Amino acid sequence: MPALVPVLSKTDIEQKIIETASKISADYEGKELVLIGVLKGAFIFLADLVRSLVIPAEIDFIGVSSYGNTTSSSGSIQITKDLQNDLQGKHVLLVEDIVDSGLTLQHLVAYMRSKRAASVKICTLIDKAERRQVNLAVDYACFEVPEGFLVGYGLDYAEAHRGLPAIYHLKF
Ligand code: IMP
Ligand code: MG
C-alpha cells in the first residue's frame, strides 16, 4: 500500500483560498465572470473558491481526460463533458486542481478563446511549475509544489482519495 504523507493542511488551504479569492474579487469587479471548473479534480477547490468571492460569478464545468489511471500526462486531451453556458463576451477563469505539464490548460485556453470569451485566465490550487512542457501563463496559483504525486481535496489516484480534507503526497 502506498503511504500518504501530509503536504498541505486544511488550514493552509483555507487561508490561501481566502487570499486568492480576494485578489480575484478585486481584479474582476464589475466584469461578467464565469468560473469554469476542470472536472473532476477541481470540484472541491471551485466550491470553496466561489464561496470566498465577494463578487457575482457564473459557474460551469468542463470534463477532460488525459491520464487514464497513470500518474503522468499522455498529452492527448479529450473533452468528456462540454460547457453548458455561452461564453461570448464573458471573462473566463479556468479553475484547475494542478497544472503539471500544462498541456491540459493550453488546450482549454485555446478552446475558451474559440468560444469568443472576452478574456481567459487560469487559477490553480497547485502549480508544479518545474514540470511545465509548454509556455503557459498561470494567473493565480495558490501553492507551488515541485514534485510528487498528490491526492486529497479533490485530487485522485485512480479515482481514490478525492474526499480527503487535506493534500497528501502518495509515496509508492
Ligand atoms: P497537465 O496536462 O500535465 O498539466 O496535467 C494536469 C492534470 O493532471 C491535472 O488536471 C490533474 O488532474 C492531473 N494531475 C497532475 N498531477 C497530479 C497529481 O499529483 N495528483 C493528481 N492529479 C494530478
Ligand atoms: Mg485535472
Give a quick summary of the entry:
This protein has 172 residues and is an alpha/beta fold. 23% of the residues lie in helices and 32% in strands. Strands 4-3-2-5-6-7 form a six-stranded mixed beta sheet, with helices on both faces. It has a three-stranded antiparallel beta sheet with strand order 1-9-8.
Number of strands: 9
Give Rg in angstroms: 15 Å
Small-molecule binders: inosinic acid, magnesium ion
Widest β-sheet, arrangement of strands: 4-3-2-5-6-7
Terminal-residue CA separation = 8 Å
- Unreliable stretches (pLDDT < 50, length at least 5) are none
Strand content: 25-35%
Mean pLDDT: 94
Helical content (DSSP H or I, runs of 4+):
10-25%
Global geometry: globular
Biggest sheet: strands, sense, closure? 6 strands, mixed
Number of helices: 3
Structural class comes to: alpha/beta
The H-and-E topology, N to C, reads as EHEHEEEHEEEE
Task: Summarize this structure as a short list of keywords or feature phrases.
globular, 6-stranded mixed sheet, 3-stranded antiparallel sheet, alpha/beta, binds magnesium ion, 3 helices, single chain, 23% helix, binds inosinic acid, 172 residues
How are the secondary structure elements laid out?
Layout: E1 3-8, H1 10-27, E2 33-39, H2 43-52, E3 58-65, E4 78-81, E5 91-99, H3 103-114, E6 119-127, E7 140-144, E8 150-151, E9 167-171
Parallel strand pairs: 2-3, 2-5, 5-6, 6-7
Antiparallel strand pairs: 1-9, 3-4, 8-9
The protein binds inosinic acid and magnesium ion.
